[in-house]
Write a structure and sequence with these properties.
Number of strands of chain A: 2
Largest interface: A-B, 19 and 15 residues
Strand order of the largest sheet of chain A: 1-2
Order of helices and strands of chain B: HHHHHHHH
Oligomer: heterodimer
Structural class of chain B: mainly alpha
Mean pLDDT of chain B: 82
Order of helices and strands of chain A: HHEHHEHHHHHHHH
Shape of chain A: globular
Low-confidence stretches of chain A: 230-253
Mean pLDDT of chain A: 76
Shape of chain B: elongated
Radius of gyration of chain A: 19 Å
Strand content of chain B: under 5%
Chain lengths: 253, 235
């Protein structure tokens, strides 16, 4: 039997992640990042909708979110020499025929989500103050008294919060699992804000909003690079993916 | 007359002189031990302070939230300095005990020995308090985050209860180590658990009396009905 493997497949198989939590929640993130970081040629194709195991969002959210963010920040640390040097992004080749998958409407209690976010702001204040820059915390506090419709977390604020959290995770200001779990109300609040902003929009219009968020992440990267202070810069800088919102799984931003 | 002077004046003076000469080396030894202890304490304290500062102990404590806790308690000194000073005073104390022992006086020796025997209890109590403090911080933070994520409104109250619960327990255990309140932990647990069970029973009795009544009625009436029916069926 022939056992010819590509270097990328060999690289992936040699990593001890297949029996870990990474394989349960983060395998798309991990494989894509490893491929890009390893300098593999990257392309994009439509494979249909991603089917996940049914999960109870209320029960699984802390575990899933913590795991996904843990993996993301670990990859950030692992490849800091790569992303800190990369500027801008460019589109990747597209193979196959684009197809749009119909999305089932989901009923969510936005009011409850905003209430969760506000409870976090009140009760987790000492922890958030350690994680977030003062300016960011003040901006979040300003949202405390607003009505449900006005409670909007802008893309810029969201990006800075994520970058602050990544820096706090790296510098170990508080225990890492506590840090990630403490950010869940913020994630819920931002999701509520996104739902409110995209209510009544088509999938394409909602995709454009996500695309705009990705551009904001890209434009504000110097903020992260300045504060990250990578100890060693690696010389390799392969192409990064240009974000297009064609992933029908839509689990991660 | 000469006899009188010798017996009544010179002899006591000679005896006193002899006693002073006997004790003098001990006093001298005490002075040397104290002086040596002072220098050793200063050396050890400074070295420890510098070492801890060099390895980033202050930063580590900052991350654990200890610096903030010290500030809250009105202590503005950094942890490295505190450790340095603690070592300094510990050495001074040990040197003082050793110096008192050098006098070779029975009551002082006994006091020094009992003081030395108490030191391990003091150290154990300090370790228990420190461990309790760290554990309470960790647990209260974890409880606070979990309670907020579970959407429980009194999240802060629950976290504060867990913090104080652990700190009180650690305090009680430390007191027990010091021999101040030997059975406080057992009694404390008895009172606390008794209180919780009593509170639960009262709350259930006041708040869920109807539920309890319905439950008991269902259980008892259901059982008697089924037994009646069973009897009739057989007859």
């Amino acid at each position: 039997m022939s056992t010819h493997r590509t270097p990328l497949a060999t690289h992936d198989l040699n990593h001890q992640v297949w029996e870990t939590e990474v394989a349960r929640f983060d395998i798309p993130i991990w494989m894509t990042t490893e491929a890009m970081a390893g300098g593999a040629r990257v392309c994009q194709s439509f494979l249909g909708a991603t089917i996940h195991n049914p999960k109870d969002p209320a029960a699984d959210l802390p575990a899933i979110l913590t795991q996904v963010m843990e993996a993301l920040v670990a990859l950030l640390e692992q490849h800091e020499g790569l992303w800190s040097r990369q500027e801008g992004s460019q589109p990747v080749s597209l193979f196959g025929f684009p197809n749009e998958v119909g999305v089932e409407p989901v009923h969510v209690n936005v009011e409850q989500m905003v209430s969760h976010d506000r409870q976090g702001l009140t009760d987790l204040e000492p922890i958030w103050r350690q994680i977030l820059a003062d300016d960011r915390f003040t901006q979040l506090c300003d949202l405390q008294g607003t009505s449900l419709a006005e409670c909007h977390i802008s893309d810029e604020l969201r990006v800075q919060i994520v970058y602050d959290a990544a820096i706090a995770h790296r510098t170990r200001i508080i225990r890492r699992d506590h840090l990630l779990k403490a950010l869940i109300p913020l994630y819920v609040g931002r999701t509520a804000s996104f739902i409110h902003a995209t209510q009544g929009l088509t999938s394409a219009e909602a995709d454009r909003k996500i695309e705009a968020l990705c551009h904001t992440f890209e434009h504000m990267k110097p903020y992260l690079v300045e504060r990250w202070q990578p100890p060693v810069l690696q010389p390799v800088a392969p192409t990064l993916l240009h974000h297009t919102s064609t992933d029908t799984g839509g689990d991660y931003e | 007359m000469n006899e009188f002077v010798n017996q009544a004046l010179l002899r006591p003076l000679a005896l006193l002189g002899h006693q002073v000469l006997t004790v003098l080396p001990n006093v001298l030894a005490m002075g040397i031990i104290l002086l040596g202890g002072l220098f050793t304490a200063w050396g050890f304290g400074s070295f420890a302070e510098r070492l801890f500062r060099m390895i980033g102990f202050d930063h580590f404590c900052d991350r654990l939230g200890m610096n903030a806790a010290l500030l809250r308690g009105g202590v503005k000194t950094d942890p490295s300095r505190i450790i340095g000073r603690s070592i300094y005073w510990t050495v001074i104390m040990l040197a003082s005990i050793a110096a008192l022992g050098a006098l070779n006086l029975t009551p002082i020796n006994q006091f020094a020995q009992s003081l030395l025997a108490y030191v391990p209890h003091l150290v154990t109590a300090a370790v228990i308090l420190l461990a309790g403090y760290f554990l309470s911080n960790f647990v209260s933070q974890a409880v606070l985050i979990a309670a907020v994520n579970a959407g429980l409104p009194p999240a802060r109250l629950i976290a504060a209860c867990s913090r104080w619960g652990i700190q009180v327990l650690a305090g009680a255990m430390a007191l027990e180590q010091l021999g101040i309140a030997q059975h406080i932990v057992v009694v404390g647990f008895g009172i606390t658990w008794g209180g919780i069970v009593l509170a639960g029973a009262i709350a259930f009795g006041l708040g869920a009396a109807d539920t309890a009544k319905e439950f008991l009625q269902r259980r008892l009436m259901g059982r008697s009905k089924s037994s009646t029916g069973d009897d009739l069926h057989h007859w």
